[in-house]
Design goal:
This protein is α+β, with helices and mostly antiparallel strands. It folds into 2 domains: about 100 residues, Aspartate Aminotransferase, domain 2 (3-Layer(aba) Sandwich); about 90 residues, Alpha-Beta Complex (Aspartate Aminotransferase, domain 1), CATH 3.90.1150.10. Helix content is about 40%, strand content about 15%. The chain has a 4-stranded antiparallel β-sheet with strand order 4-5-7-6, covered by helices on one side. Helix 4 runs parallel beside helix 6.
Length: about 200
């Protein structure tokens, strides 16, 4: 849950290009609008040679893809690749529908608007337990100064809010890109309550 810096990503692009190596970016979680752009690499002014995608690519139907530049694709062996489930008609139809919906609704714009607002609201929570709030778009991490697991469990049990851990002290928020601001306000309110609780009592 630590966003890369433009300097780091641009250096990676320059080094790989200079050494004749491929720059491969994993956007299985960050792609498809999650960070406020269609793909996270767009924030950094670079283009990878290969991009891996999955998860939101087909709106929840299991599918994955490796997207590559034409220069890389032209060097791939022809006719030598096989796959058990590749080209599944249902998965491909779901992928096309999800891509069309994403383009029609421009959900990345919602992530670009709501993500910074959500992080700002989380930073307003006055709690000595919070170390840092960080993220990009609607990919947000709230780092605590103690273990996050008890708070994640309490958010789920008491407030019906699903979050994930990202390491031992970070609460990870990955709300759907169609979420409304009023729902995020409920999350902030619930978290404010939960952080007043002492898990040792």
């Amino acid at each position: 849950m630590r966003p890369a810096t433009p300097g780091f990503m641009q250096a990676a692009r320059e080094i790989t290009r200079g050494k004749g190596a491929l720059l491969v970016l994993d956007e299985i979680q960050t792609g498809m609008g999650r960070t406020g752009k269609r793909f996270a690499f767009e924030h950094f002014g670079i283009v990878p040679d290969i991009l891996t995608l999955a998860k939101a690519l087909a709106g929840g139907v299991p599918v994955g893809a490796a997207v590559m530049t034409s220069q890389v694709a032209d060097k791939m062996p022809k006719g030598g690749h096989g796959t058990t489930f590749g080209g599944n008609p249902l998965a491909m139809a779901a992928g096309v529908a999800a891509l069309r919906y994403l383009e029609d609704t421009k959900l990345w714009e919602r992530a670009a608007e709501l993500g910074p607002w959500f992080m700002q609201e989380l930073r307003k929570i006055d709690s000595p337990k919070i170390r840092e709030v960080r993220g990009m778009g609607l990919l947000v991490g709230l780092e605590l100064k103690e273990k996050s697991a008890p708070y994640i469990t309490k958010l789920e049990h008491d407030h019906k809010i699903l979050t994930l851990a990202a390491g031992p002290t970070v609460i990870r928020f990955l709300p759907p890109l169609v979420i409304e601001k009023c729902d995020l306000e409920k999350v902030v309110s619930a978290l404010r309550q939960v952080l007043t609780w002492n898990p040792k009592e």
